[in-house]
Amino acid sequence: YVPPQVRKAQETVDDKKREELGRLKKMVNGLINRLSEPNLASISGQMEDLYMANSRKDMNETLTDILMNACVTAVAMPARLVMEHVLLVSILHHNVGIEVGAHFLEAVVKKFDELCESDAEGKECENLLALIAHLYNFHVVHSLLIFDILKKLVSTFTEKEIELILFLLKNVGFSLRKDDALALKELITEAQRKANTAEKKLQDQTRVRFMLETMLALRNNDMRKIPGYDPEPVEKLRKLQRTLVHSSGSGKETQLRVSLESLLSADQVGRWWIVGSSWSGAPMINDTNSKTQQKLHVGKVSSRIMELARKQRMNTDIRRSIFCVLMTSEDFLDAFEKLLK
Questions:
Q1: Is the domain covering 4-265 a CATH 1.25.40.180 domain?
Q2: Closest to 147 (Cα-Cα) out of 173, 117, 111, 108
Q3: C-alpha dihedral, 113 to 118 to 119 to 121, nearest 10°
Q4: d(C-alpha 189, C-alpha 191), whole Å
Q5: Is the pLDDT of residue 167 over 60?
Q6: At what angle do helices 40-53 and 79-95 cross, to 10 degrees?
Q7: Which residues are registered as beta bridge partners of 141?
């Protein structure tokens, strides 16, 4: 039971909050509507001020909602527009904090997964994939996620998935090759195997052939073979990004190295990729497991070494184990192997 006066107080607080959020949404919407390359500097500055004046949670949710409404439509969005929107997220990700990019990325990936499962007729999947591709282009997310998505698409391998693979490779293929050539090579081999087995099922053979040709062009670093490939707009915006990011943290260290599985199960296992994100759900490791872990296997270690460990105040099993490993290893490789064990 909630007494009437308390109920009244809560209602006025709720109304106030709703009004504040409405005002915030209007301001953010106004900025996003005016967003273009020439005024990116002033708009990102104003957005940073809004982040300073309002709670991060409200800002992240408002920004994500508005960007998703703007970019995820049933018709294909102009590439330029998507790039500018993602560049704004990237600048805020570097200047304000990584939770900005993390919140947006999680929303986009979940929506993408949901739409891939349902057979949506429109171009929403392509638009979401373009957002993810440009988040990678502008150093918000690591190539690990892109490879996870590509693997998932290759494993399904229907005509819709082939379209999406082509779309993604055209946008970020050469960057993936630079980042992890080996993973790309494995992916191409897997796609070729899938294409051979799925040959009978797919009616549109030319599309599959075109996809395999594109992949081979990527592997051989041959840009001319990919029709309509133009790295110029991305490069131009990357230069602009470098001028707008305040800190030296514009490089790889702010990239979110997170897998597709982690993003999709964030509600069950927490968000380890956001610094300071507390987890209030079920404990991830049960206690029985952690107790057995404590008894570490040190192997046959001489009493002299154990005595040394005691003198150096190695007072727990794990410290003694590490000390013994370091003292008894032949070289760094041997030490590394033993520490891993």
A1: yes
A2: 173
A3: -80
A4: 5
A5: yes
A6: 40
A7: 256
Query: For residue 333, what is the enclosing H or E element?
Result: helix 332-340
Residue positions counted in the chain = 341
**What is the DSSP annotation of 15-37?**
HHHHHHHHHHHHHHHHHHHT--S
* d(C-alpha 27, C-alpha 143), whole Å: 34
Whole-angstrom distance, CA of residue 30 vs CA of residue 12: 27
Could you state, in order of their start, the residue ranges of all structural domains in the chain?
4-265, 303-340
pTM of the model: 0.75
83, pLDDT greater than 80: yes
- Dihedral angle at the C-alpha atoms of 87, 93, 99, 105, nearest 10 degrees? 20
Q: Mention every residue, 6+ apart, whose C-beta is less than 8 A from residue 246.
A: 94, 95
As a whole-number percent, the residues of the chain with pLDDT over 70 amount to 89
| Rounded Cα–Cα distance for residues 279 and 269 (Å) | 8
Query: Sign (positive/negative) of CA torsion 182, 207, 150, 141?
Result: positive
Condensed to tens digits (0 to 9), the pLDDT of residues 87-98 reads 999 999 998 988
Cross-strand partners of 256: 141
